[in-house]
Design goal:
Layout (H helix, E strand, L loop, with lengths): L1 H15 L10 E9 L2 E9 H4 L19 H10 E5 L2 E2 L1 E2 L3 E3 L7 E9 L6 E6 L2 H4 L4 E8 L2 E7 L5 E5 L9 H13 L2 H11 L5 H23 L7 H21 L7 H22 L10 H29 L3 H29 L1
């Protein structure tokens, strides 16, 4: 029993240790717009994103001292390369706007002058060389004929847009990968599922429970991304934490349960709003041009693949740790207590920070 407790405590400690960044992907949010023979590059960065604790990313100065943003002013025009019709565009001196208050965003603007009006546009993002391999740039490229969303990553650094034809290659793969990464680093979502799954006894119950969660969060993910349902993060984030506390308490009151599809469907609607944050930050669906379907479907597919992979790994471990009925009940109870503790911590933290 002690080993079971130690295992549960260690796993929850890992999850809780990353609570502050439960719904942040290490990213910059870039808007790239065309204006005659110029390309305007507008980048938003959270200080906590570009200087994550323990990362090998950019260093903005010593703790307690005023941030030194000169590294960003140097990095953006050096690491972002824009080519129009095969000819390199020239970056002007960048402008940086520091955050207005604690937790606000840093803004970097660079204007690229091109030799002629772009028909084809190639964008290369090498900011990873400065920010670190964990960094992403989520970009929204806009021109008179439409827009294109893309996620720049270490393995996907280039985007080509055919502006003249008002078309662009669809970046389904990048949004699929982003969905997988989001769920694997969405520790509160994973802990909710783990709290639900720990008391299930059959694969039939597991499939029903996860399917209900999938259907529910897919609905609100689509509604929130397209702007039909807008709920502030200060409401969504505490509700997600409260859902974790709830499933832990329910486990203690009803230690043996079948399919929990009603619970996961109800709270899945809330979690879908949390998933939508990434796509809404990017601007997917915000301009009403119909460019939402592919990014939404790809991102959602990535979330589901990541979620199912975790369930397939976690459920057999839960069953193995509780091979005897009394051990299974005790492990589920111990795990649920720790789930409640982590959820309560997030709940207090998010209410206080809202």
């Amino acid at each position: 029993m002690q080993r079971l407790l130690h295992f549960a405590a260690a796993l929850v400690a890992i999850l809780a240790g990353s609570a502050a960044s439960a719904h942040t992907v290490d990213k910059g949010l870039a808007t790239i717009s065309l204006d005659a023979q110029s390309v305007n590059y507008h980048l938003l960065l959270a200080v906590t994103t570009v200087t994550p604790q323990g990362s090998a990313g950019v260093d903005l100065g010593k703790p307690g001292a005023p941030p030194d943003y000169s590294v960003l002013l140097k990095a953006v025009p050096e690491k972002i390369a824009i080519t129009s019709n095969g000819k390199a565009c020239t970056p002007a001196t960048p402008a940086l706007t520091p955050p207005a208050h604690e937790g606000a965003l840093v803004t970097v603007d660079v204007r690229f002058a091109c030799a002629e009006i772009p028909r084809t546009l190639e964008i290369r993002d090498n900011l990873f060389d400065v920010m670190g391999a964990q960094y992403h740039t989520i970009a929204n490229v806009q021109w008179a004929g439409g827009s294109q969303q893309f996620v720049f990553m270490t393995q996907a650094r280039e985007l080509r847009v055919d502006v003249a034809a008002a078309t662009a290659p669809r970046s389904a793969g990048s949004f699929f990968v982003l969905g997988i990464e989001h769920i694997l680093t969405g520790y509160d979502h994973l802990l909710f599922l783990a709290g639900v799954l720990v008391v299930l006894r059959t694969w039939r119950d597991v499939v029903q429970t996860i399917t209900a969660f999938t259907v529910a969060h897919s609905v609100t993910l689509a509604l929130a991304t397209t702007g039909l349902l807008l709920v502030p993060g200060r409401i969504v984030e505490p509700l997600i934490a409260a859902s974790i506390v709830y499933v832990g308490l329910e486990n203690l009151m009803r230690p043996v349960q079948g399919s929990r599809w009603k619970v996961t469907f109800g709270f899945g609607l809330v979690h879908g709003l949390g998933f939508a944050t990434v796509l809404r930050d990017l601007g997917v669906g915000a301009n009403g041009n119909g460019a939402v379907a592919l990014p939404l479907a790809s991102f959602n597919a990535g979330v589901e693949i990541g979620q199912m992979a975790v369930a397939l790994l976690l459920v057999p471990v839960f069953w193995w740790l509780g091979t005897r009925p009394i051990s299974r009940i005790r492990f589920a109870a111990a795990w649920s207590v720790l789930v409640i503790a982590a959820g309560s911590y997030w709940l207090v933290e998010r209410i206080a920070g809202s």
